[in-house]
Amino acid sequence: MSEETPPNEKSAHFWATVKRFVGEFRPHRTPMVITVITLFVGTVLTIAAPYVFGLATDAVFAGYLSMTTAAGQHAEEAAQARDQQSSLGPIIDTMDVVPGAGMDFGLIGKLVLVGVAVYVLSSLFTFIGGRVSIRVVNIVMSDMRARVEAKLHRVPLSYADRQRKGDVLSRLNNDLDNVTQVANENLQQIITGLISFFGVLAVMFTLSWQLALIAVASIPITGVIFALIGVPSQRQFSRQWAATGELNAHVEESITGIALLRVHGGLPAARTEFEKSNREVYAASLRAQILSGSIMPSMTFVSNLVFVAIAIVGAALVAGGAITLGIVQAFVWYSRQFSQTFGQLGGMASRLQSAAASAERVYELLDAPEETPQTDVEPFAPSHGKIEFSAVGFSYSPDEELISDLTLTAQPGQTIAVVGPTGAGKTTIVNLLMRFYDADSGSIRIDGRDVRNMSRADLRRPIGMVLQDTWLFEGSIRDNIAYGNDRADSSAIEAAAQAAYVDRFTSQLPDGLDSMITETADNISAGQRQLITIARAFVSEPTILILDEATSNVDTRTEVLVQEAMNRLRAGRTSIVIAHRLSTIRNADVIVVMDKGSIVEQGAHDDLIAAGGLYASLHAAGFGEE
What we know:
By secondary structure, the protein is of the alpha/beta class. It folds into 2 domains: about 5-140 and about 150-365, Up-down Bundle (ABC transporter transmembrane region fold), CATH 1.20.1560; about 385-620, P-loop containing nucleotide triphosphate hydrolases (Rossmann fold), CATH 3.40.50.300. About 60% of the residues lie in helices and about 10% in strands. A hairpin with an 8-residue loop joins strand 1 (about 385-395) and strand 2 (about 405-410). The radius of gyration is 38 Å and the shape is elongated. Residues about 1-10, about 70-75 and about 75-95 have low confidence and may be disordered.
């Protein structure tokens, strides 16, 4: 199971995660500058349009007042006359009224056309900026997805052992898809929202500082709302995506092991586990959505209160002649825009919290330790295959030693069989030899060179492996045999297939070696899969051979062919055979018996039987035999 950071600690990393994600766009400065400039122009034009229409409103109202006042009067005289008749005198004082002039339809028409043109240009620039931003986001996310996939090839086996495959797949798919979707939908809104916020704020203070203060009063209220709702919401989103990873891990395990679940009656338990994980996802998602969903209504309520206050105070200022009716009209729009910006930011807050939780899970994977490449070692190509374990000690965890003072030598061409109970440390020997893990003490040498003084590529190149868990990919049998050896030509592949008896069953297939293997390789038998992996080892022409549980999962019908292919493959090669079936290793040059991380016996089969130790006990009990 993966080691998850507690959600309350992860939520504290929100801004650090956002800052890191923003840094992903740094290599794409040019398109980002284009995005910001076009969206800036579009937003500024959007802000300017209400002011233009406010001027048109003033022109209409001034025309109306002009039509209702006597020609020849000065504006001051008209205002005094209006004061005596009504309360419009202060309004006339603040407007450019020419008594008796009537409506200036030319000016009004020009202002309306200018306003429409401003809106058209605003839409055009916003459209261009949006298109560029979407392209940039998809490039960034494509690069990030490639980095994650490449990272999986560099992490040590210890990381893979600690993680559930389903959780890793969830980070690669669900979390990255969530970040991509949120970035695509919200990058443009974030840029326009920030520009609109500061732009509208500046215009409002320019038009009327009194009304602007009313609008600004909503900012601290909004901050309190986000602190009370947004922070807990982020914690729930972290829990949601962690639970989703666990759910995916369970589903992946259930699908890959569906046959075993059915055979052993494990479906009810698997269903119970699924329902438990599903409930955790549901509960975390519900809490996250309820909390985040309440942000927008709360901000809308605050914006409505601000709108009412601006309308009342604005009417009073117009009546007192402090501002014009057109300014109030524009200000009402600006206050709405100001509130909508907050509303958009509030709506984005929940999505950004979800994306930040996903991005943090992705960055956890990207920050995982890697196998350190060794560039300061001289090239080395083992040619003899002598293997020496000298006083090797190792533990997966500091408080539990697994291998203790292990000393073992395999001479060139010799077959060493390693047997012992489960947990004795047999597979760990292979992991140490391949440097999937490094020994805590002692040394491991191949042809006299310490494996820690060899590059991993040089170390692993001359080693062939045939494992119990055969790994085949969707493709032709030919391509599966040649996997990992680009230099293998058709003749080498066909020779390997013949040596491993693969040709025994491919000759009966319509397409022979070009026959396709399905994604799960369920169209061939377990024994046939084993033969293909043996052929793969033949193609690589290894100096050292590792056979881990190589025949413990092979059908009886093919076992004879597998054993003969193994014997051919081991000929002239140093081989380490790890098996639980003692019948498969009777002819080994040396049989090493392990228990609790130490070698307790070693020798030939007959000698170990005669000694009457652990090996004899295992043999008498029919160890590993059906």
